[in-house]
Every structure is written in structure tokens, then in C-alpha cells.
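Review box. Two proteins, two foldings.
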Amino acid sequence: MAKRALIFQGGWDGHEPKLTSARFARLLNEEGFEAEISDTLDSLKDLDELLKLDLLVACWTMGGIPAEYSRNVAKAVGAGVGLAGCHGGMCDSFRNDTEWQFITGGQWVSHPGGDGVEYTVNILSPSNPITAGLSDFIVKSEHYYLHIDPAIEVLASTRFPSVAYYHISNKPVDMPVAWTKTWGNGRVFYTSLGHHDDVFDLSPNAEIIMKRGMMWASGGKSYAVANGLTTSRFESNLKMY
């Protein structure tokens, strides 16, 4: 049986959600997935339907999400459904929903210099299946500065500062570009690359990382089933929802 993915796209059009969603669907189809694209958050309304998926892909910048839908994502991913996304489509999706930020592992706060900043993406985990065999590469796009969850596993990073802005008076820092984390039994993958769809053409390693990240995230459900993992160990605190 083919794995199933739901890509929900929308929000701010500047991040070209329709183009990136179509690209991600194509990449998933190449791996035998049945990938559905939805242009409404109502696709997150039915928890039972979400639990049938192997992967959720977020392509929704800014906007708001009903609390019920956010809870459904938290529970579905906690049960093993993967979550993957890029740029503002996942880590600048719903600025007022701190639970969403908790699930994803980070939140965009700035991109000093705007679009067109040239910077290096440094591969930190050459043995990880998402970045294996890849070398450092150059990107010319927005240079994302994020507030991050210290629990994430950083696969690639970039050096700040690259342009003069207020933060330049601080010490240089290495900012994550791609990471993984877990949420319950689910796997979460994020990359800050993808301001415009053509970033994946101009920097082919960016597309490779995104594709592999989606594949990795989608494997959490089958792993949980194969290893007898359940959500019971998390449910004692579900009253917080």
C-alpha cells in the first residue's frame, strides 16, 4: 500500500506556496507516495483522517490556525505521522500558536538584508541519511534568523552575521538551516531554505535535503508500529489541551 501525504498550502503568497507544494508533491510521487494538496486548513479538522497519513507537509506562511486544528496536528504527529516543511511555510506559519512552534522546533524572527543575501550552508552531519554525501554549498536568498528549540538535531548551519544590522554587535553565531526532532512517536524535519521555489533549482542540494527530509519524517509511523510504540506514555498530560 502506498504511503499517504497531505500537503496543506496557503497563507502569504510571497513564498509561492502553490509552486513549492507542487514540487513537494512531485518529489513524493517519485517515491511512490499518494500526495494530496489542500488549500484549506479545514483538511486538519478530522483527527481520524490525519491519523491515516504517513506525512504532513506544511506550506502555510503566517495566518492563524484554529486551536482544534493545532491540537489535531499535535496528536497526529505524536502518534507517528511525520511533519516536514521549509522556510516560512513551516516555521513562520502561525505566529500566535506557541504549540505549533513547540512541535516544529523553531520560529522565524528576521532575515537581515532581505532577499538576495549570498551565504554558505555548512553540512554538519555527513553521516545522517538526510545530508549524507553532500558538501557545503552557496545559497543566494533570504538568510533566516530563527529562535530554536535546544532539543533539535542540527544537520546544517550557516554563519551570522552576514550583513550589517543591529545584531552585528553580538558575537558571531552558527544558525541552524536544517534540523530534525521528535514529537511523541512522530518525526519532524525542517529546512529554512525555500524562500522562492527556484531556490531548489539554483541550489540542487537544497532540494535533495528537502526530499530526504520528507522521506525520513514519513518513516516514523512504520517505526513506531514495528517497535510496539504507543502514545500512552504521553497521554497523561493531554488535559493541557
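Next protein.
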Amino acid sequence: MSKRIVIVGGGLAGTIVANGVCRQLGNELRSGGVSVTMLGTSETHMYQPGLLYVPFGKIREAELFRDQRRVLDRRVNFMIDPAKKIDVDANQVETASGRIIGYDYLVLATGSRIMPQNIPGMTEAGHWFYDLDGARKLREALDNFTGGEVVVNVNAPHKCPVAPLEITFMLYEYFKAKGIGDKCKITYTYPIGRLHALEPVAHWAGPEFERYGIKSETFFNTESVDPAKKTIKSMEGVELPFDLLITIPPHAGAEVITDSDLGKGGWVPTNTRTLQREGSTNVFVCGDTTNIPISKAGSTAHFEADVLIDNLVSLVQEGRPAREYDGKVFCFVETGMNSGTYVWFNYTTPPNPGPPSQMIHWFKLAYNRLYWLSARGLL
């Protein structure tokens, strides 16, 4: 009997899994012993980390997009028909069009979405770079900015955890290059008592902030924004003025996850090693969708996807999983317009950022070009 693998979500995690499974199960796909179906939401696939460069005019928008069907292995049955309800007891997915799709193995790779509307006044007064429209508006705001108080406001949870530091360092060098550095004061807010959730990264960032003269306000959990007064207020009672507000909006998981009662906030309770949904043996979770307390980042999705590919293939061919996920994450960190560093860690090894260098910045720019090989599972 044919084994049906269904992948919900067409972002990086789901795409790598689909391509990798097809590559390793060629014989089974040819014989009809396996089928791979992806339920996506769009014809296009976007390279989301590239949005960081849009506000600074460092990347063309066209470089961020590819036709999803061309990114996917041709043997994937790709449907633009988003999942509406997932029934893990009945092993089936109901789609927006009313299709009922059964599965033997399900991969939840539904990603995350920004929720600036959850903070009163943020949509009206804030700028962000986590979607294309926001990145475009921030680019225009930076073009017209002549100086003043700049607040980089970080909310939780959010994906790409080093991005707030990156945008802060890049802003400093952007203003300096524009000739208005002495007219700009940057204040960085973070919701816990340090500059980053990862303590070694926070310890590294502190001296860098001091060197650049960047101010910080920790224990700052955003309560509201006043667009008229141009102030942002924390639940702790701190109020900061701004002339330009750049926010990392709070994120939530996909609605289908909450609507299917699979996880609070859209995050699915996930076994940290097997990546199985807690309570299921045939439902796997990948990328931002997990509730695993590690970075929601592209590399996390990639390393998790590699494990899922091996396990799905092994389950089909041998009836047992192959290996476990060790929590590996690797992130490049832009420390300005022409320098960068990186962090890597896993469940047992903490991160240890090294000195920034131009070479690492070039490595990140190179990866921006190689992303499409990564999505195809070739890198």
C-alpha cells in the first residue's frame, strides 16, 4: 500500500523536506509506493532573510523570489490549497477548498507570522522589515530621515533572533555614511534583562553597543505606542520618545495550528530530539512551527529538515527512524554594512561569537546567493 507523505507549508523547512524525500525515495516514487504532497499558500517562494537588506538598498526585490514549482522537485504534488483543519486522530487534512487529504506521515512546517496589530499604535507608528511591504516602507522612511531619536524595539516571540542586533549595527553605519550619524541617537529595547536571549550573545553585544554609543533599555515589554506623541511605553512603565520607530513585531504561528487545537499561539509541542509532535508517532514538526526553545531561524529549519528527511526515508524503507536532532543552529550576524560574525550552538554547546570581520560578511552575502540551492536540498 502506498505511503502518503503530506507536508503542510511551502517555506524553507517544508521545501527542503519535500525535495530531500523525493531525492532519496526515487524508486518508491517511480513504483507508486510513496507519494509526496505539499499544501502551500503561494505560487512564489521568498528568501525571507534577504528582507534585512531591502531598507538599505542592498538587494533587489526580484532577488528574493522564485517560482515555488521550479524550486520543488517535479515529483512533488504541489497544491496551492492551504490547510484549514488538521485532524491528527483521523490522519487527514481539510483544505481551504474542501479537499480531505489523508496521510501516513505528516510534516507541519506552517511557519510564523508577524502580529504588530497586537500592540496598540504599533501598526500606525512603527516600521519593520519582516515582510516586503514593511521593508519597503522602512526604506522610504530611512531615505527621508534627517536625524533624531531612533528606537529599535524588540518583541517576543520572534524569528531570526540575531536580526534585531543586525539592523541596529547596520543603522549605525548607514546613518554615519549618510552624514547624519552625529544627529542620530539609537536606543535598543529588549524584553528581558539583557541584550539577547542567548547569554553569550548578550555578553558579546554589550561592549559592541558601548563602542558605537548605542543605548539600551532592557526589561522593556511593549505595552503601547502613541503615534501622536511619538512615544513607546513598556509594561514596566518606561516611556521612550522616537522620531523613527523600528520594531521587531511579536510573532504567532499559523492559524491552522490554533484552529486545529495543535498548539497554543500556533506553536506545536514538539519532542526536542525526534521532532515528533508530542502525542503522535507519525506527525513531525519542522522550522518555526515547533515550540522548541531554540532560535526560529532558517538554519534551524534546515538542520531539522535534514533529520526529518532521513527519518521519513528510513521509516518508509526500514520501518524505523534513523537519527535524532541535536539542536544545531548556525547564524551569520551582520555587524555593520561591511563586517560580520557568526554564532553556532546546539543543545550541549553554547554559542561563542567571534570577532567581526569583512570575510564573514562576504560569506553571508555569498549565502544569500546560495539560498536557492539550500532550498532545493543541494547544499
